[in-house]
Amino acid sequence: MLALYYYPGNASLLPHMMLREIGAEFELRLVDRGQNVQKSAEYLKLNPNGRIPVLVDGDLVLFETAAVALHLADKFPQAGLAPAVGTSERAEFYKWMIHLTNTPQAEYRAWFYPHEHVSDEATAPAVKQAANERLTRMFDVISEQLGDKPWLLGDRFSAADLFLFMLIRWGRGMPRPPRNLPNLNALAERVLARPAVQKVLEAEGIKAPVF
């Protein structure tokens, strides 16, 4: 059986939503960040970076959120969370998955943990402010690319929309949250309305307002 190591609201939210959309049998294993379990010797055997999530699939132990997501999309093609391999639509899907993990997801590290990016703690607020400015521009670009389409791939829902939903949620504490962009808010509302996503939020104890 599949096992997902998670913490509520963390990057594990994406594979958790995918697993619920797929309808696969899986086990949720809490990694209690409040107790720094992600830095424990046992967990570091699974992910030497000490970050969440990890997916265990038989003998496969996989970390990195986007890698887990792509593996699930490939393992369960019948779920339709990604277009067929070799198509132009699949290429667009790759584009969005890589962009979201390399650009806004990576930038959130500086927003949430500015102290990790400085040697002088006094400069951490400036790092956080700069990260906010970069994230704001990134979401502006995503909004422009989305336009009036219902989903990132046009009329087709995919795991990329779940990914974007998670990133919109993470920005709820920003001076200008991503939800303030009407089309991003509309996409997030559409994702939020999905029964599988509602099950994830209930299982993780995530209460409204979600984003």
UniProtKB/TrEMBL annotation:
InterPro entries: Glutathione-S-Trfase_C-like, Glutathione-S-Trfase_C_sf, Glutathione_S-Trfase, Glutathione_S-Trfase_N, GST_C, Thioredoxin-like_sf. SUPFAM superfamilies: GST C-terminal domain-like, Thioredoxin-like. Residues 86-210 form the GST C-terminal domain. Residues 1-80 form the GST N-terminal domain. Pfam families: GST_C_3, GST_N. This is Glutathione S-transferase family protein. It comes from Microvirga terrestris.
